[in-house]
Amino acid sequence: MTTVAEPALVEHFEATLARHDRIEPRDWMPEAYRATLVRQIAQHAHSEIIGMQPEGNWLTRAPSLRRKAILLAKVQDEAGHGLYLYSACETLGTSRRELTEKLLTGRQKYSSIFNYPTLSYADVGTIGWLVDGAAICNQVPLCRTSYGPYGRAMIRICKEESFHQRQGYELLLTMMRGTDEQRAMVQESVDRFWWPALMMFGPPDADSPNTGQSMAWGIKRNTNDELRQKFVDMSVPQAEALGVTLPDPDLRWNEERQAHDFGQPDWDEFRAVVRGDGPCNAQRIEHRRRAHDDGAWVRAAATAFAARQAGEESR
Ligand SMILES: [Fe+2]
Ligand SMILES: [Fe+2]
């Protein structure tokens, strides 16, 4: 499809990146830059949408009206995030239909974290604290990503993610001030989610071959290991304030590095989950497929309505 790009176009693209300006949808861009963005934004959009499932699981069993209202608002925010990101992806010339198709057939991925089950209400708090917390670490630098529509979507998403993180932390704090049984629920939940949360930053830098190119293009602003370190350093004092123990015997402050040393997640488990063999992969996709099929009549009606409107306008 592409012929050799005009040197002037390449030069303009490179100069835009060098000035830390945004690349916009109508600007010329290398095909590999476009493909990398589509892959990353799609994976991000799918994560928002699939990510509604583990918490949605608790909507009908929230312990109070207040908790239900908070959880409902949070899950709806995630739907909105998915939609902004699918729209950003469409500006690169890939339709939402195509992206959904690729998700359902396993050709595009979503974050490994959403393949873990939610077993107690404490998980709603832990997901907010650790999973949305990790998402914030990943996403704040993306507000400065080089592709305009993606960066602008991230600004709004990050504001909502910080509400998600706080509601989770506040829920855990309330439980920690409750009964022994509630405190045990929180600790058990943190034990299950800590390592999968560390995996959210992706494999170690040495095993992440695309990072260098993505950084050169200004799509990524920090490496996986840098972000993981930042997340650990941020979470340790929060865990202390909460009164929970992070399940890592190697976790300790390193005076020399002015950062925490910590253990490695089980990378074999990570690879298995990414491959589709996590605890809930099949269930998540099956649920998404059913929702997609159930929505077929809405898409058909909207398409028919749009066609009729267009017909009326042209008369
Ligand atoms: Fe989100
Ligand atoms: Fe969130």
Q: How would you describe this structure to a colleague?
A:
The protein is mainly α and 315 residues long. It has a single domain, classed as Up-down Bundle (Ferritin), CATH 1.20.1260.10. Helices cover 66% and strands 2% of the residues. It has helices at residues 7-18, 31-50, 52-56, 65-90, 96-104, 122-139, 148-176, 180-199, 211-216, 224-242, 267-277, 281-294, 296-314, and strands spanning 252-254, 259-261. The chain has a two-stranded antiparallel sheet. β1 (252-254) and β2 (259-261) form a beta hairpin. α2 (31-50) packs antiparallel against α4, α6 (122-139) runs antiparallel to α7 and α6 runs antiparallel to α10 (224-242). The mean pLDDT is 95. The structure holds fe (ii) ion (2 copies). One fe (ii) ion is lined by residues 78, 132, 135, 161, 164. GO terms for molecular function: phenylacetyl-CoA 1,2-epoxidase activity. InterPro entries: Aromatic_CoA_ox/epox, Ferritin-like, Ferritin-like_SF, PaaA, PaaA_PaaC. This is Phenylacetate-CoA oxygenase, PaaG subunit.
In short:
This protein is an all-alpha fold.
Keywords:
315 residues; mainly alpha; Ferritin; two-stranded antiparallel ribbon; 13 helices; 66% helix; globular; binds fe (ii) ion; Ferritin-like_SF; Phenylacetate-CoA oxygenase, PaaG subunit; phenylacetyl-CoA 1,2-epoxidase activity
Number of strands: 2
Number of self-contained structural domains: 1
Order of helices and strands: HHHHHHHHHHEEHHH
- Main pleated-sheet profile: 2 strands, antiparallel
Q: What is the average per-residue confidence, as pLDDT, rounded to a whole number? A: 95
The strand line-up of the biggest sheet is: 1-2
**Rg (CA only):** 21 Å
Task: Provide a count of the helices.
Answer: 13
CATH architecture: Up-down Bundle
Bound molecules: fe (ii) ion
Spans of at least 5 consecutive residues whose pLDDT stays below 50 are none
- Distance from N terminus to C terminus (CA atoms, Å) equals 37 Å
For the record, the CATH class is Mainly Alpha
Pfam family, one: PaaA_PaaC
Protein name: Phenylacetate-CoA oxygenase, PaaG subunit
Organism: Actinokineospora spheciospongiae
GO molecular function: phenylacetyl-CoA 1,2-epoxidase activity
